[in-house]
Amino acid sequence: MKYGLHATSPGRLITAVIALACLLHGPDVHARQQPPAPVDVGTAEMRLMSPSMNVSGTVISRADAVLSTEVEGRLVQVAEVGTEVEANAVLAEIEDIALKLREQELLSEMERAESRLRYLDLELRRLETLSEQGLTSATEVDRTRSERDVAAGDRAVAGNRLAQIRHQLERTRIRAPFPGVVAERLAQPGERVATGTAVLRLLNPDDLEIVARAPLGYFTFQQRGETLSFTAGDRSLEGRLRTLVTVGSENSHVFELRLDLNDPLPVGQTVRVAIPTANARDVLTVPRDALVLRSDGIAVFIVNEDNSVRRVRVTAGTGAGDYIEVRGPVQPGDRVVIRGAERLRDGQTVAPRG
User: Which region holds residue 318: left if phi is over 0, alpha if psi is between -120 and 50, else beta?
Assistant: First the structure.
């Protein structure tokens, strides 16, 4: 039996060569045949970082007050909810007719007291002149001086009563102690209120802070003035730790943190604050966006000098802000893909944009 070569078409020959190349070189050939994929890159670098835990916090206003009445009476005006006011603006008024009538009455008493005092002053001077000439007795002079002194006291008493009424009149108006927004109406126009009745709530939405509570065991790792990261919904933000309230209780065993907040968030917003739970240490970090989560674990794509990528498995550790600790075959200074890694394959060529 003889064996010979069969004729083969050019198309089948090319297909066979490509198949043989794929068998010999694996998927890298196919990856290199694709055009470079545009990606954003970052850098792996050493950072001082400490382990952290998330605790719940709430956005509050530093200026938040419930304003109450200082005199009794009928409310004639209360600011609407949502009204924006400046400091010292009138927010509510109490009917003041009776106080104004009393003010007029005391003004009349004041005028009578001043008139009598002026008369007795002149009479005392006249009698003192006559006494020097021997034309009146010393007893008459002393009696007039006493009456003059009593009249001066009456005028002072009338003046004090008038000042008290005017003080009460001013207190019929509830004024804003700071600029802010009316957040709640606690009484309505037409209601009769007693002294100390809560009428409305005013808060300043531009003077915010975060209050959070954490276990006392982590108190020693907090430092006033340090910057802590927190999340509000899908936003990642930062705030300066302004103060610590170091008082715990037998039941709660927590301490309080207060962070300055410069970002516009609604009062009452729930946040998650990342607080240190151990001393800081130098760790290798990458941008959080460099982590690729797939069914076989967590990985990052490192960009080689020839702009090909290699996928390496890593273990994520401590995170802070936009960076996270990684442990694995990553070195400081390595370029890692932070955008566009979702469809990359090992060995694929990329076109870095940063």
Answer: beta
- pLDDT given for residue 3 in this prediction: 43
Q: Which helix (H) or strand (E) holds 346?
A: none
| Residue from 354, 349, 276, 353 nearest 30 by CA | 349
Residue in 319, 288, 322 with CA at minimum distance from that of residue 54: 319
The pTM score is 0.64
Long-range Cβ pairs for the range 112-117 (8 Å, 24+):
113/151, 113/154, 113/155, 113/157, 113/158, 114/155, 116/151, 116/154, 117/148, 117/151, 117/152, 117/154, 117/155
| Residues 52-62+207-279, CATH architecture | Beta Barrel (2.40)
- HSE (side-chain half, CA atoms, 13 Å) at 269: 21
Q: What is the C-alpha separation between 232 and 217, in angstroms, rounded?
A: 25
- pLDDT, tens only, 28-76: 444 445 688 999 999 999 998 888 889 999 999 999 999 999 999 999 9
Question: For the segment 189-230, what is each residue's pLDDT rounded down to a tens digit?
Answer: 999 999 999 999 999 999 999 999 999 889 989 989 998 989
What kind and span of H or E run contains 16? Answer: helix 10-25
C-alpha 342, offset from chain centre: 36
Amino acid at 136: T
Would you state the CATH architecture of domain 67-92+177-203? Answer: Beta Barrel (2.40)
Domain ranges for the chain = 35-49+282-352, 52-62+207-279, 67-92+177-203, 97-170
Q: Does domain 35-49+282-352 sit in CATH 2.40.420.20?
A: yes
Residue 330 and residue 318: Cα distance in Å, rounded?
16
Residue 185: DSSP 8-state: E
DSSP state of 308: B
The DSSP H or E segment spanning 129 is: helix 97-132
Beta bridge partners of 46: 284
Alpha helices in 133-172 (DSSP H): 138-170
138-170 helix and 97-132 helix, angle to the nearest 10 degrees: 160
